[in-house]
Amino acid sequence: MQLPSSEEIVEDLAFFDDWEQRYQFIIDLGKQIPGLSEDARTPDKLVKGCQSNVWLDYHTEDGKFQFDVDSDALIVNGLLVIVLSAYNDKSAKDILSFDMDAYFKQIDLERHITPTRGNGLRAIVGKIRQLASEAR
Hints:
Layout: H1 6-15, H2 19-30, E1 54-61, E2 64-71, H3 74-87, E3 90-91, H4 92-97, H5 100-106, H6 115-135
Antiparallel strand pairs: 1-2, 2-3
Helix pairs in contact: 2-3, 3-6
Family: Belongs to the SufE family.
Domain Fe-S metabolism associated: 10-130
InterPro entries: Fe-S_metab-assoc_dom
């Protein structure tokens, strides 16, 4: 799956005048995720702390993480693309050095999602950072 870069996400979201349009863009981003098969949606891949079900799987190629994700909520799939635009195809060092808080602030994301969605986003980011930390 070819995802936009975090820089492209910032540029694309800045193009829209209001958050209604940005939400639609985020939902459309989520439609790019191929999803996981039912067999891959196992309890060990379920990210704890998310309001919606979110499954996260990964493997590494040449020292870079490749993530496969899925959610049962369209908006969450879009939010997963935003997160993965910063982390997918990156080394553990790159993942751990990326300032996700500054990225979210730059796109003004957390002010425009519910607190429970924000907690879920932080859980996903935390899980990915944990995986990267363990791989070092």
